[in-house]
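Dock MRU; give full complex structure.
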Amino acid sequence: MAATRSPTLRPIHWRNGKVTLIDQTRLPHEEVWLELSDYPSVVAAIREMRVRGAPAIGIAGAYAMALAAREAAQSHPTAPSRWLEAAAVEIRAARPTAVNLAWAVDRMLAVARATADADIPSALADEAVAIHEADEAANRRMSSYGAELLPRDGAVLTHCNTGALATGGYGTALGVIRTAWDDGRIKKVFVTETRPRLQGARLTAWELADAGIDATLIADSAAGQLMARGLVDAVVVGADRIAANGDVANKIGTYSLAVLAKESGLPFYVAAPTSTIDLSLASGDLIPIETRAPEELTHLGGQRVAALGVEVANPAFDVTPHRYVTAIVTEAGVAESPYEPALRGMSGVAGA
Ligand code: MRU
């Protein structure tokens, strides 16, 4: 019997023709909401990770397209479609790894191309709201499928932030955890700090505390020790892009967790909407991996901590080969190896 599902934060809103979003760089200390009325401000918010998480940046990108369509009609009435296509290129490039952004922009462009110029602004606003609402519904569906996979009375480890903040609402991997907790299925959650941006310590810990879920924060490098001691029963993470063969790009550190899980005999689950599946890429080797600024590693809270002159490599994501993945959970069901036919069968559910 399913327990009542608690409502969760919606990190993005479309109100009076503007995008309002919670600034995730200020959490957990301050809840600051940004009101953005033009598409370049949304692009900047995505780049600066004020809004982050694959589904959330897809939704923000869709609203950016709606803002760009209005601007095209008002300021470039002679060639609004050409101007919108140029804006789409800019929006799509805001961050490279999460395919949800390109997916949402392409879906918005398809609507624009099929609509008479005068009607494009309202059609795109409606489409962005539809993408947003469908994402939250998808999360709730995948969470029910995923919760059933988790070991009864188990402890689950998760990485980065995949909760309401990272999505249109409710969450993917964290949605699975939330549902499993509400159903009384799991008894504990371990949250990795998630260096260097600390999405686990700042955001996931904040969401779990708010939900009253028993959570323990660990350093990223403590995961192996916990698994070796038998304190973890399963790992659940999200994804930024899933290639046709089931290889998964996700937050840097995910691959190490998957290898550790396999070595420890633990299941490793990935939860993501079908909009995260990229069937155009045969394997994870082809997924573009974002590199972020060296200061994310050399500085802590604005203070330099690294030795002067040291070289820095700061990939924001890694790719976990599909052989380490026990199952991929989407709103269309649970895929297991061999992944390609299963993922192909699921695509199209979100218009993928
Ligand atoms: O750099 P971020 O914080 O946008 O990275 C987020 C992640 O890697 C998440 O695990 C992924 O986007 C899934 S969010 C539901």
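Observed: Residues 52-55, 98, 160, 162, 166-167, 172, 199, 238-240, 250-251, 316 surround MRU (CB under 6 Å).
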